[in-house]
Amino acid sequence: MTGDWIDDNRISYDTVAEAYAEQVRDALAGQPHLLAALAVFAEAVRAGGGGPVADMGCGPGHVTAHLRGLGVDAFGVDVSPAMVGVARRDHPGLRFEAGSMTDPQLAGAPLGGLLSWWSLVNVPDDAVPGILAGFGRPLRPGAPLLLGFHAGEGARPKTEGYGGHPMQIHVYRRVPERVAGWLRGAGFAVEAQWLLDPDEQRPSAVLFARAAAPRP
Ligand SMILES: C[S@@+](CC[C@H](N)C(=O)[O-])C[C@H]1O[C@@H](n2cnc3c(N)ncnc32)[C@H](O)[C@@H]1O
């Protein structure tokens, strides 16, 4: 570990970018509930008048591309330049930028929606409320935010992954109500909460929220 979680994430995901992309390339196909959540999100973006949608922590860009297929003007941002390179290579028509989700200027404004799909799972708890507040700033009032993450409790260090590559990150599981509370504190109205695979060892959660009017 470098002592800086952003550097740890960047270095680790740079190391596994190719292997990660290989593993998730077709992952959505077997996930009807995730596909349904993405479809609801895409419909909300379209109903709100469209506009650019940021996929923050986009990894290899397969979800960005899926949203494009649903008619959303999606682009991706990731802290790992190697992930961005894989995303650009695999989805040459789409826009991908390197940068950290902690930078509120990064996404540009105004946005018609924002997605964080399993990209807060390596972010420490104390950084999440500030990041969510930053997500709210470029969003048009009423624009949708979709978060996907590991449900549950606790954090564990991950020292290798995706075929045995070295990694130095933490993986966080979170109770959906806690994340919903953070969203409300960041000015979002929470509209839906899905708990997926509640009977399995590793449940997932998806939260759908909307940006409030900007605070004076
Ligand atoms: C578990 S992967 C999820 C990738 C993709 N969204 C997906 O669903 O497969 C976590 C991603 O978040 C990115 N990430 C971690 N910290 C970040 C940060 N501070 N800013 C932007 N991206 C970050 C990592 O580089 C990695 O690509």
From TrEMBL:
The keyword Transferase applies. Keywords: Methyltransferase, Transferase. Residues 53-142 form the Methyltransferase domain. Transmembrane segments: none annotated. GO terms for biological process: methylation. The keyword Cell cycle does not apply. GO terms for molecular function: methyltransferase activity. It holds the Pfam family Methyltransf_25. SUPFAM superfamilies: S-adenosyl-L-methionine-dependent methyltransferases. InterPro entries: Methyltransf_25, SAM-dependent_MTases_sf. PANTHER family: TRANS-ACONITATE 2-METHYLTRANSFERASE, TRANS-ACONITATE 2-METHYLTRANSFERASE-RELATED. This is Class I SAM-dependent methyltransferase. It comes from Dactylosporangium darangshiense.
